[in-house]
Amino acid sequence: MLTVPKVELQLRRWAGAPICSTFGNKPLIDFGGRPVFAELCVYELIRLSGWQARWVETYGAGTMTPNHFTAWADAGLAGQQHEPITDPKIQDLLQKIAQANGNSYAGCWDVVGWKGEAIVFAELKRLKKDRIRATQPRWLEAGLQIGLQPENFLLVEWDLCGE
Predict the structure, then answer these.
(1) What Cα–Cα distance (Å) separates residue 128 from each residue in 80, 123, 125, 153?
(2) For the chain, which ranges sit under pLDDT 70?
């Protein structure tokens, strides 16, 4: 049985003014006094470690054209700023995984981070409220087929402090 690294995070719920556009009622996390989704919290943590990163969102996107986010504006999905990955090695790697995945980004893990030759895909799951979807192991398998290792993938199990 294949295993990938896993970390557990306790995150603080946002207690400030609510935002209207919560992308399907996603919980808001307090990250440095700003309301963010858990995916953007992990994106920020990766960036604070000196890496580049993007939240990869396939919902509402074409099969080979996911959105890449670095922030969330209170404006619904259509109002978000797509921040394309400009590193050609990362673009190429993502394309190869998608091709091995049946020409689809379906199941792409939530956050991709990279620094030099190192790359990691992080999949976030809220404790007792989320589970792996069938497409996500297929993305992992496609990544392994093109030469990535289990250590290039990270399961992030998170929950809100005190809940």
Answers:
(1) 29, 15, 8, 21
(2) 163
